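Appendix C reproduces, verbatim, an entry submitted by the partner laboratory led by Prof. M.T., so that reviewers can inspect both the input and the predicted structure.
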Amino acid sequence: MALPYLELVLGFMILMYIFETYLDMRQHRALKLPRLPRPLEGLVSQDKFERSRAYSLDKSNFHFVHEAITILMDTAILYYGLLPWFWMKSEEFVTRVGLNPENEIIHTLSFLAGVMIWSQITDLPFSLYSTFVIEARHGFNKQTILLFIRDMIKGIFLSIILGPPIVAAIIYIVQIGGPYLAIYLWGFMFVLAIVMMTLYPVLIAPLFNKFTPLPDGELRQKIENLAASLMFPLKKLFVVDGSTRSSHSNAYMYGFFKNKRIVLYDTLIQQCTNEEEIVAVIAHELGHWKLNHTLYSFVAVQILTFLQFGGYALVRNSKDLYQSFGFDTQPVIIGLIIFQHTIIPLQHLVGFGMNLVSRAFEFQADAFAKKLGYSTSLRAALVKLQEENLSAMNTDPWYSAYHYSHPPLVERLSALEDSDSKKED
């Protein structure tokens, strides 16, 4: 007897929606609390707290609507067999334009083009509202409609350029993979990840933002001295014009082996007027490098990717699985889509576990920065960034445990204070 795969997937989707909505409601109640958490009293101004609360509640209300519409659309697409219908229509389109519908690569590209158009249409209202209503209302959005449209067109163009060869390669690998399919697929994705990590900051990111060298001065000297003291092979130090789109701030590093680069958002420099605070943030980021967090995370992702491909290899020839979703044939791309739906329970568990590890890494990076003597500056920077980004001050413990990859500010400050206390003892 065939398992009711479709019904099981729909059931879990709905159960997860109910569970996550419950967590969202808990977080919404926490956001409505009229007072700062006690550890933040005297650190965060009342004005910033009120603005943060209003911003967080706006985003929370929007999230409820977005998630409700999303689950309704996703459920309808699966329940009413719109996926096989769309696959059939994409075949008709290929035939109509004079191409060979028996060529799975051409058929798949037609199908994915339609999916991309559908996604752009359905996502656009939410993206516009989030950017030009919520973000603008709270002073974050710096984009014009023209810049928004230009970014969207660039994204579509990149998908058109990069998507077809990647999809074609995956289909070809599945067709010839045999018993070593999982190894071949993983190997291809591993090489692709390395190539994209190399090309993205050099060729793709500059299409959307302008990267300029950090000017000579005390800040640059302090960062270079810090990097040198840790034997971090810093080759370039950039400032990115994040302020052209948003006043949110950030900093990150990238690069392989002896070719490391650090990028500061111009908004970070504007918000942290004390240079020691910026250097403390960089010390935290360098802590991730020194403690091999990036490497561990990359290895974990590669292991999980291999396991997913191994699972897909086991079920890719299951007629029952395809038929449960309304397919009489077994296209590669459809198999991958269906498989991703069937392992949603595992994906949620893995995501929860990865968040636990990520939060542990954040505490370790904070402790690393503190050992370098940046405890006071890092605390000040964390508070300032929390204020300037209007991040949620009150968080529900269940919600943050499930969703957050970074610990809430209260927990990070408490950890830094505890380590200071232990040092004094």
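The CA atoms of residues 16 and 345 lie 9 Å apart. Additional entries are available on request from the coordinating office.
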